[in-house]
From TrEMBL:
PANTHER family in alphabetical order: METALLOPHOSPHOESTERASE (PTHR42850), ZINC-DEPENDENT ENDOPOLYPHOSPHATASE (PTHR42850:SF4)
Domain Calcineurin-like phosphoesterase: 3-191
GO (cellular component) term, any one: cytoplasm
InterPro entries per the UniProt record, alphabetical: Ap4A_hydrolase, Calcineurin-like_PHP, Metallo-depent_PP-like
Lineage: Bacteria, Bacillati, Bacillota, Bacilli, Bacillales
A GO biological-process term: RNA decapping
Annotated source species: Fictibacillus macauensis ZFHKF-1
Cross-referenced Pfam families: Metallophos
Stated name of the protein: Metallophosphoesterase
Source taxon at top rank: Bacteria
Gene3D superfamilies listed in its UniProt record: 3.60.21.10
Length: 248
């Protein structure tokens, strides 16, 4: 039986990404879906982007846009320094990962010139990422949808990337299970970073807050079975748990 494997909020953590793909035994018969936030906070954003891009171009993989790709592109295209992106949103590590191979330690115009010159294909890839993907039973998105709309596809670009409680505090009417990331699950669970399932079994959040001491999750969907494979950012801890959900 074919499987769908879903990952989100990798945030520059290349080693856990590769270890988790190995743990789930990802193969050419699987559908691999990334829900965004490949950059910022972690040390290897450039390698994560290159890996995801290669999987999309050569394997049966889909990559969606997250809010942090948008933040990175805004920093790149604007001439002002955008100190918030660099200092608060985790952008310094992203810029360093792209520029260090070329001997550049600046976070200003020199860094932007380096990235434009050497990563043109990666920039184009990030600019063109879709906002959602759906199959017969599931809707995949980075942050969520606007549940107030009659047609969820009219959700704004900002909400697809950024929405939080306005999405997960209200019932959704898509008729599908929405699988998303963006909000670390510890905010919803209050005390742990496991995959979060809402009360009516219609939303699954897989942002395990890897960078914050939680998990990088891979949700494996096989028929009506949902299993979360998890690894921490040091690759020293692992867990595998069933998600108690029956597919619609």
């Amino acid at each position: 039986m074919s499987r769908t494997i879903v990952m989100s909020d990798i945030h520059g953590h290349y080693e856990p990404l590769m270890a988790l793909l190995s743990d789930v035994k990802y193969g050419s018969g699987d559908k691999l879906i990334f829900l965004g936030d490949y950059v910022d906070r972690g040390p290897d954003a450039a390698r994560v982007v290159a890996t995801v891009k290669n999987l999309v171009e050569t394997e049966n993989a889909v990559a969606l846009a997250g809010n942090h790709e948008n933040l990175f592109l805004k920093w790149l295209w604007r001439m002002e320094d955008r100190k918030r992106y660099l200092q608060i949103d985790g952008g310094k590590k992203t810029v360093k990962s792209f520029c260090k191979p070329y001997g550049i330690s600046s976070y200003k115009v020199q860094a932007k010139k380096c990235i434009f010159k050497n990563y043109r294909d990666e920039i184009t890839f990030l600019k063109n990422l879709p906002l959602y993907y759906e199959d017969e039973r599931h809707l995949f998105v980075h942050a969520g949808i606007n549940p107030e709309l009659d047609d969820w596809r009219q959700t704004s670009k900002r909400d697809f990337r950024w929405i939080r409680s306005a999405f997960w505090e209200k019932p959704q009417k898509t008729g599908k299970i929405i699988i998303h990331g963006h909000t670390p699950t510890v905010i919803l669970h209050k005390d742990h970073y496991d995959v979060w399932l809402n009360n009516d079994n219609q939303e699954i959040n897989i942002d395990g807050g890897c960078h914050y001491g939680g998990w990088l999750h891979a949700l494996v969907i096989e028929g009506n079975d949902y299993t979360a494979y998890s690894i921490d950012h040091t690759c020293s801890k692992r867990q595998v748990k069933k998600v108690p959900l029956t597919a619609v």
